[in-house]
Amino acid sequence: MDYRNILFEVKEGIGYVTVNRPKALNALNTEVLTELDDVFRRIDDDDRVKAVIVTGSGRAFVAGADIAQMSELNGIEGRDMTIQGQKVMELIEAVNKPVIAAVNGFALGGGCELAMACDIRMASDKAKFGQPEVNLGIIPGYGGTQRLPRLVGKGMAKKLIYSAEMIDAQEAYRIGLVEYVIPADELMAEAEKLAKTIMSKAPIAIKMAKVAVNNGLNTDLKTGVQFEAEAYTSTFVSEDRVEGMKAFVEKRPAEFKGK
């Protein structure tokens, strides 16, 4: 697929996905969602990609869904768009590579939901977050009512959703919505640094840790630790586990091969 609304490149093992509609503040319309779906399916199967950084062009990460498009939809069409967006966020959350959101500016509505679907969120000190959907007579529809309380707690999530409040990066960090706040001119360098740190670890272990965490969050503790045992076993029978433990005993850096 040729992309009109996103940029994608792979450099030194990092896949860079940039939403590129700066005149529309990178708003998510059905075409952008289709392209994001396609690129993350490619990433899932691309052995060159070891980690992913998601960001936006210009002064926004993603400033929300495309309200101009949404205003023309009937109820069935609106539901279809919501389901499309949910499926894209689920794909990003489940892709078998670590995904870092480099939130460079406005992350509102669907943009906040996109950031929450990523594994780790790094925010520019100029970033703004919010779920303003109730201002439009709707609610978050791309997973926001589900992922936000899992990150910041039920009460805080309800407060943000009910009030449509926009918060800055420091408040997002305080409540646990983001893991880092970085000066704007250092954001991409810090995201790349983190990606390279993760890439230096055993790829199978990273993949299975992601599976265990994601699956465990969707069930009770007893079932979650059963998921963990299965994921642990997958890593224990890998060549990387043999190499990692051998390197530790021999006091040398491990040379992981993802096998």
TrEMBL record:
Q: Which GO terms describe its biological process?
A: fatty acid beta-oxidation
The answer to keyword Cytoplasm applying to this record is no
Under Enzyme Commission nomenclature, its number is 4.2.1.150
| Subunit structure of this chain's protein | Homotetramer.
Q: Note the PROSITE patterns from the entry.
A: ENOYL_COA_HYDRATASE
GO MF, one term, reads: 3-hydroxyacyl-CoA dehydratase activity
Q: Which family does it belong to?
A: Belongs to the enoyl-CoA hydratase/isomerase family.
Query: Which reaction equation describes what this protein catalyses?
Result: a short-chain (3S)-3-hydroxyacyl-CoA = a short-chain (2E)-enoyl-CoA + H2O
Which UniProt keywords are given for this protein, alphabetically ordered?
Answer: Lyase
Question: What pathway annotation does it carry?
Answer: Lipid metabolism; butanoate metabolism
Descriptive protein name: short-chain-enoyl-CoA hydratase
* Pfam families assigned to the protein according to its UniProt record, in alphabetical order: ECH_1 (PF00378)
